[in-house]
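User: Here's a protein and a ligand (adenosine-5'-diphosphate). What would the complex look like?
Assistant: Let me lay out the input and then the predicted complex.
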Amino acid sequence: MKIRRLAEGTINRIAAGEVVERPASVVKELVENALDAGARRIEIATSRGGADLILVEDDGEGMEKGDLAIAVERHATSKLPRLGADDDLTSISTLGFRGEALPSIGAVARVAIASRTATGDAQEIRVAGGALDGPSPVGFRAAGQSGTRVEVRELFFATPARLKFLKSARSEDLATLDIIKRLAMSRPDVAFTLTMDGRRALNLESENDLASSSEALGRLRRLSQIMGRDFADNAARVDVARESLSITGFAGLPTYNRANAQMQFLFVNGRPVRDKLLVGAVRGAYADFLARDRHPALALFLDCDPSFVDVNVHPAKTEVRFRDAGLVRGLIVSSLKATLAEAGHRASTTVAGAALAALRPQANTTFYQQDYSHRPGVNDPGRSFYAPLLPADTAPAARIEEPSAQTSHDLPLGVARAQLHETYVVAQTQDGIVIVDQHAAHERLVYERMKKALENGGVVRQPLLIPEVVELDPAEVTRVTSRAAELAELGLIIEPFGPDAVMVREMPAMLGKADIKALVRDLADDIAETGKALSLKERLEEVAGTLACHTSVRAGRRLNAEEMNALLREMEATPHSGQCNHGRPTYVELKLADIERLFGRR
Ligand SMILES: Nc1ncnc2c1ncn2[C@@H]1O[C@H](COP(=O)(O)OP(=O)(O)O)[C@@H](O)[C@H]1O
Ligand SMILES: [Mg+2]
């Protein structure tokens, strides 16, 4: 015989290699246990990145003396429902279920677990490198106050190889913080504190303690404590359900975009996960509104019947597998798109905030020291507000002297009052000012119109009196003409014209007068970048974006009052008009209160 069974300690150390990859994974397992035990408050402390000490104390249901000893045995769990003589892996509703964490941690560190149930007395067991000591009575919490405290010291002392590969304390701290944040986002009802080397790193009150706070509000408060206060102002609520699947949470407006995907948090049945399917779906939903290198911020909570999802993919349980991945992907994409459409033309408030910050004069400039008393006041009713303020050498704004018959009531984007620099439309709303970038806004409107026309079977074309020949290099000619059928659907009729040119015969009518040469060259560039993997519809939508970029209402065109107001009304009626195709805002709104602050009136 040369085959023998491994010693229990060896088995646990091997298992520990997967479950306890680093200090942060110990924290994760312990906090998950606390949540599974029904804790309302969890206190976490680490020192030296968790290598010296990890301490997690909760006020959950606690463990009886007998359970305490079994808890550190391998594959021992209280969480899997029985299925006849078997265990039921198909309906897991807890974060843990594998019964591996405590024995794994006990195999590689010195662990002390003190626990008390509501009716029992406090007991403690100690495990060091797999060797058990206890349970024995200990002073821990008062009678009737259930809870558990797990103390992990000298992590990996029993596995020196792993110890050598520990990263710096700082990077372990960051990983721990990240894990606690994710768990805290999924459970706003639970209070969390995190202390690192004696410093308070996180202090989150339970959002259920706030009287009158609805569940969604509590969730949003918790999210913005973690994702930043701006998030609440720049996020739209997601709340949809289909079959046994529901998606709730908050999606950041496209204008509130980020350089990476780190502000994307996804949860499946309360479990923080990193899942490619989810990440891809989010990307797809925002593709229309964001440049490829920008990412939205969001937190989505997917809830479904436990049998619909397999969390038993990896020991760390951060990956999941869905029984119907298509349904999940479809629901994420459609719910996000619907949410963004509903958020409509709302642009991010941080845009206005940043604009205000830039405008706000420095206290020590001469600006404030000038005497403005001769100027008409903003609140001076009978007088025109802008004209006298314009320096004489500036081109006058296109001005509407009489307040138009329309009032700003019920018009979110207000009534157009002026066009400045032939680029910006300034409108007055009930309680503020809206400044519209007319080119960006128009580009968005044309894009949305094109998409609608596409859905309804094609874009109206207008033949050119004289076909336009556009020179390109031969590779570009091939690329553009290979997509001629799609372009035709979008109203652009292009054919090859020799080896290094194409001829444009018809244009989308809605583009008006466009620079055809520039348009076709841009198309050639965009088509080069487009991956083959995109569906026909996605490819069409992408080309539509390029076409929309070349519309007639460019910056620099003077608009009359009707045109300006028509633009505002169409923006209000059009989904997604708050940002251009590249995630930049199409308008900013400054509230009167902000403007008053700007002038030191408040
Ligand atoms: N903080 C805690 N409070 C109450 N019981 C706990 C706590 N931590 C662990 N336990 C008990 O110990 C068992 C083993 O824990 P663990 O090894 O993490 O496996 P799992 O969580 O997968 O069940 C759990 O099933 C639970 O009954
Ligand atoms: Mg566990």
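Summary: The first helix runs from residue 8 to 19.
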